């Protein structure tokens, strides 16, 4: 059975709905038509498991959905303001270097890998939804449907945030978004015939919200390490916040907090050094044998600089590091001077300093933490002049307090206080460019809505569809 399910994942990985060209060279016995391969409820469940596995690859949450937003949101210019510099890419891989230096080309390797893997995952989710009739148990069917809907919604959301001008770039968000795929390709012939144009950003967000909202009603309150109803609410809070829908973002975050399922750890390091702690709403499961990579992919691969661990490719700006109060435990626990051989550049605020969040190849990767929900609710309540669930002062005190951070709680916090704590708390977890965009900021001289900050649509997708899928401006 395990071999059969592996074959299904390979098939759906090769059946990209937006390309006619061959993606995988697989042996004939692996090219199983999904209509033949998916026959039982266990087959459908294994396909969902395969979708989680795809999300954990280096192309997605295993690396790129964390790394690329941080590289895009870092100012690469020498002499840049200390905080704006954020991080520096000193590695040799050109795909990441192009993203950091804002010199991406239409054949950027990381853009292509991320696009392909996300649509593979979407196709897996669509195959699950297409085969729900194989699942006779009602509770199991609802659970699998909810997981597939949320997986599909999450992947469309991550794609539209990276490959399209951001929400708000046009008055009605009519700018080109990404291709919305809600039907499965069972084989390569169907994939070749399924080329569709990019939907507008408004339409993509509507599809994302529809999937995530439906998932809330289908998912159970508890589901092991897989998506549950609170995961869907947490993602909804992210989506609504990206749109500037503060009431909805607040209420979704409040639902997660009010569920009582999660609590912040006393130690800021615990969520990154332990697995599935009380503050983790969803994380990618990894171990020594199964992880995103130890040489060409993986968070520790690029962010760590320890004996035998890491390439030391992402160095933390000294200026950003010094935004933390010297007494802040996060400054001590989350940053360190590593063993990287590349020379430091003190004149430009660059030392051999690295993120302590990503130190092990086998560690789990927290994607959404409870701290984000407290920060979302605090920000939205402040903006709206409300106190749903708690006051902004109470929420901010959950994140910053004498026990957790060794800092006093902030009395009567301002919006600037909340946003500052957000960047300190969620640093190097893939939020950087997305927060710059929604807050109308800039990356050096590039405004939040600059074309150059948008990833290119892979050239193979544009070429294979004879322009049905259009390219982004500047590429």
From TrEMBL:
A GO cellular component annotated for this chain's UniProt record is: cell outer membrane
So which residues are the signal peptide here?
Answer: 1-19
Family annotation (InterPro entries): SusD-like_N (IPR033985), SusD_RagB_dom (IPR012944), TPR-like_helical_dom_sf (IPR011990)
Its predominant location is membrane
User: PROSITE patterns, alphabetically?
Assistant: PROKAR_LIPOPROTEIN
Pfam families listed in its UniProt record: SusD-like_3 (PF14322), SusD_RagB (PF07980)
Its annotated compartments are:
Cell outer membrane
Keywords tagged on the record? Cell outer membrane, Membrane, Signal
Task: Indicate the segments forming the RagB/SusD domain, all copies.
Answer: 362-444
Q: Does the keyword Membrane apply?
A: yes
Q: Which family does it belong to?
A: Belongs to the SusD family.
Record protein name field: SusD family protein
